[in-house]
Amino acid sequence: RYAYRCTLGAHRGVSVEHRENTIAALKAAEKNRKYAFIEFDVQYSKDKRIVVYHDKRMLRLFGDMRAIGNTTFAEISEITGGEIASYDKVIGVLSKKLNIEIKSHGNNQEDECLVDEIMADIKTRQRDNDVLISSISSHVIKYINRKYPDIPTGQVFWLVPSTYLLDGLTKNLYEDINATEAVYLMLHVANLRNIDDLLKFKPAGKTIVFWDFDDTIYIIHKDLSDRLWGNSGIRTFYQLVQYKLSSSFQGLISKGNLAMGSMI
Questions:
Q1: Which CATH superfamily is domain 5-253 in?
Q2: Which of 12, 42, 43, 129 could form a disulfide with 20 if both were Cys (CB 3.0 to 4.6 A apart)?
Q3: Domain map of the chain by residue range?
Q4: What are 203-243's pLDDT values in tens digits?
């Protein structure tokens, strides 16, 4: 019912065809033209290697109860047959825009070290304009915005009180991301039930992103401030015009087909 343009990304890579966050899933997203950006998760192993993995433990995907943070990278590689990759291996094969999610386990000092290491690498690779850093941790988002103000950030939410359709709670949600200064509000698709209020109360300069547990993640472009990170206002405007023209053309075709059908 809405005619807003969306920009599609690959959540944990092409995770419906490959095991999530693996080199295979991420390379598949890199090759597929329908994805404008790629999301993946990072955390530390016991020996402080940055690994690309979502869960705290390896149980769900590999049947092993050990936590990533309590296991060395060599042990992780042995347990998973090398499917859990290191960050340095992943970043070297991806050229699309990236959404890197910091998986916080509640240790603020460790989270800050992880952010600093990721940021140092991004700057060394001169990929500052390509990267959005997101996290469910408010501390992580505040830290990034304080220390690296030029890097866009996204606050991740799953189910929140505003999911259940109360205007005041939706306003509070935007107040929460204003407090962390996150630009992107990254919501689980369950929050689509509240899409009317989310769009109604969305402040200019804040952008809504929806994600799911499969490979679904997309940006909603309600106004010109809603951009894929690193894109200029001119490029965003050009893409909007293209979208409007394409939508109008498709509408004319549909009307023409209906008219032809009524004549037959």
A1: Phosphatidylinositol (PI) phosphodiesterase (3.20.20.190)
A2: 12
A3: 5-253
A4: 989 999 999 999 999 999 999 899 999 988 676 666 656 66
